[in-house]
Amino acid sequence: MYNRRHFLAGATLAGLAAPAIVRAQGILRDFPFKLGVAAGDPASDGFVIWTRLAPEPMERHGGMPLTNVPVEWEVASDSGFRTIAAKGTELARPELGHSVHVEVAGLQPDRPYYYRFTAAGERSLRGRARTLPAPGTKVEALKFGVAGCQHFESGFYGAYRHLAREDLAFVYHYGDFIYEYQQNYLYDSGLPIFPVRRYDHRALIDLTDFRGAYAQTLMDIDQQAVRSAHAVLSTIDDHEVVNDWVSDVDNWSLELPGNDPDAAPPEVFMLKKQAAMQAWYEHMPVRRALLPRGGMVALNREFRYGDLMAMQLLDTRQYRDDQPCEDGFKPACPEVFAKDAQVLGRAQEDWLNRNLAKGGATWNALAQQVTMMSLDRRRKPDEPKKIVNLDSWAGYEAPRERMLARLSGLDNCIVLTGDEHQNFCGDLVLKDKIVGAEFVATSISSGGDGSDKRNGTDDFLKLNPELKFANDQRGYLVCDVNREAWQTHFMVVDKVTTPVNNLSKRATGVVENRVAGIKMA
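Above: the chain's sequence. Below: its structure in token form.
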């Protein structure tokens, strides 16, 4: 029986002999901070700082003993850590992969800070993050990044080293941090090529597999560079779990040869999703409020940058109805126009409407995963019917029109999107009225080197007059925002099949304050 005597004995033993931090020195076989550090979810008085102890990242449990390990942390106002603003000790617990999530508070608004960790006599990489301006503060300018879709096998992460060098307030990562499969071949211009590097796991099934995929990704030094340089607003898309999943539906497994509709029942898929969500939490700089509960993560949240921008982070996966017409790129079937279809789910949609009704910001930004424009995807003149991406808002016309109608009652609405592995920007149009602008960020590496234009891009642009720009290179966005205009710079690299690449600004889309429509600069 576990009684008070046992409790007191355990508490006494825990405090005897050498301190826990010294005991840890003897049980960690190697440098424990091989996965780097990160900060995220900034507020005006602080942010989350993250690390994970993993002296052998690709081993089971990261090469860590199955015991709690104390980790010291410091936050300073200078890079030399002469002026400490906050410090403490957090336990790295084996149940969470020995990850550490410290919610730092009590800092000054709108300024940079530096942070680091110490465990087992070893010190981590130094990280840097900015706090946000105080709510309602008059702010004249903001610059932040948008990135995601980083298939490890398709290319190197050199774009992240360029992004790390940008002077930014934060980076919004729209998802696809890992991919759940290994490929034997990739394709470049329709011809097979070998992957530039390989995932260790053929497929991801359980928590150990998912932890391994994140660990392998985070050992990339360019990945560590960008996470140590900027606070990150993290979310997920589909490949953190499985391609094109929504709600409790594993669409990808159902599409594999030989499978039938009973191949991935919801209750089995939810076990995989639960493991995937836990692994995601363990490796992202997010708050405890995002700890998975029953396989669900409360991903939607709001960030306000003074009075200049209100940003809503949306979740377009967990509450969405199954894709109509059996998914894919194809002509719309009747289910596309179902009146009761959901993308955000009723609760999240109500939450969004309440936040948008607050006002108080010059710009309203929706940061989300799948394209909101209903684009005609035909790129050949002999294709007779409009083709839509059914894994985007175009597959759900009723909720898409509700969203556009809501945006039509607001000023200066900007939608930030990923998923496509292409750069797009265009106007959001409802019944011939421009109600907002959408900027779609390309991938960091997914899709390989790419080219300036995919085949058929000129025809694609003619079919979609709302679309202002399309490009098939890799890179990221930089959003440069002030009271007069929102500028989005499409930053692209020349290749990702080599570790080092060259960066250039391919185009800039501009939205003027209270003027509908995007202009290309």
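Residues 266-283 form the longest helix (18 residues).
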